[in-house]
Amino acid sequence: MQESTVIIVGAGPSGLAISACLTQNSISHIILEKENCCASLWRKNAYDRLNLHLASEFCSLPLMPHPPSGPTYLSKDQFLQYIDKYVEHFNIKPRYCHAVVSAEHDEVSNKWRVEAKNMREDTLEVYASNYLVIATGENSEGYIPNVPGLGTFEGEVVHSKYYKSGSKYESKNVLVVGCGNSGMEIAYDLYNWGAIPFIVIRNPFHVFTKELIRKGIQMVNYMPINVVDIVITFLAKLKYGDLSKYGIYRPKEGPLHLKNITGKSAVIDVGTIGKIKEGAIKVVPSNITKIEKKKVVFGNNMEKEFDVIVFATGYKSIANEWLKDYKYALNDKGMPKNAFPKHWKGDHGLYCAGLARRGLFGVKVDAELIAEDINQSLNLHNK
């Protein structure tokens, strides 16, 4: 059995950020990562045209801000370069190809017992630690809803996690299900590659330019959120006009307020709205009721044949599958059981990072809080 003060499960931005903070405090730790690289979601499962939607000032990890002279909005590749530099600078050495299969709290020793499969050597390794950090992220497994007849669909079905670009879909009818940032951007990408995109939009959402969102986040430092929401929503209405005639409705609550209480982000427009207005991207204002071979039937009785369905329907946490004592920090859906801002701390030395639906800025805050809490706990114990 290998012992360490802290075990971190996951080498995405959350795991790396916590590692850097623990290193600053000279706290021994091990990162277990099932993939063969760090930040695998960004490296392997992000579509080609992805750029960070928030300005770089809100997208740094602890102890290493982006230089002011750098680009305001980073591309996927620029962000990965930053991650690689971060790993090198803090000498972070995750144990790659180590898939955690179980973790449980031992009441007798008051330690966490973690079993991980070393996939390179096909062996089972056992670890023990005083503290366990869940840093596997909320985007660990793509969620596809159970649509009647989906199994009979004769075209291609892909989750947004595995979508790279629309290059192979030229002239094909493609249905995008989901109107969050991924769905809207994928619809735009499909149009640019010569596909014929349709997008299912059933729920209201806010739409902004990335500059408007940047201004909003900056303004929150100087005025109440509800005032900021009124200002930026008014500016968005001036920019986009009335979108209801295109099947897009704004929620009654303000965007930043909604983000705070639900974790749901506004849509950052990359050009999709213009194409919807032109009719180049068609909106389907109804849910799917059934699928028959290539035909998709919608709740408004519309029927159409599609070659491809892209599900941009979000992700689910799978921490509950390996974390036997998840009740100390998570609910039955694998998300924090404690409400924000206490979401990151559980009981018996169990923590969760990057599960508050607050992007990279939330990752940074979680990492700093968790490392400081562990540091204080150790100092108390040593006294």
From TrEMBL:
SUPFAM superfamilies: FAD/NAD(P)-binding domain
Cofactor field: FAD
Gene Ontology biological process: auxin biosynthetic process
Listed pathway(s): Plant hormone metabolism; auxin biosynthesis
UniProt keyword Disulfide bond, yes or no: no
EC number: 1.14.13.168
InterPro entries from the UniProt entry: Auxin_biosynth/cation_transpt, FAD/NAD-bd_sf, Flavin_mOase
Enzyme class, spelled out: oxidoreductase
Gene3D superfamilies documented for this protein: FAD/NAD(P)-binding domain (3.50.50.60)
Catalytic activities: indole-3-pyruvate + NADPH + O2 + H(+) = (indol-3-yl)acetate + CO2 + NADP(+) + H2O
Molecular function, one GO term: indole-3-pyruvate monooxygenase activity
Keywords of the record: Auxin biosynthesis, FAD, Flavoprotein, NADP, Oxidoreductase
Record's keyword annotation contains NADP: yes
Source organism superkingdom: Eukaryota
Family assignment from sequence similarity: Belongs to the FMO family.
PANTHER family xrefs: DISULFIDE OXIDOREDUCTASE_MONOOXYGENASE_OXIDOREDUCTASE, FLAVIN-BINDING MONOOXYGENASE-LIKE PROTEIN (AFU_ORTHOLOGUE AFUA_4G09220)
Name by which UniProt lists this protein: indole-3-pyruvate monooxygenase
Source organism: Trifolium subterraneum (Subterranean clover)
Species lineage: Eukaryota, Viridiplantae, Streptophyta, Embryophyta, Tracheophyta
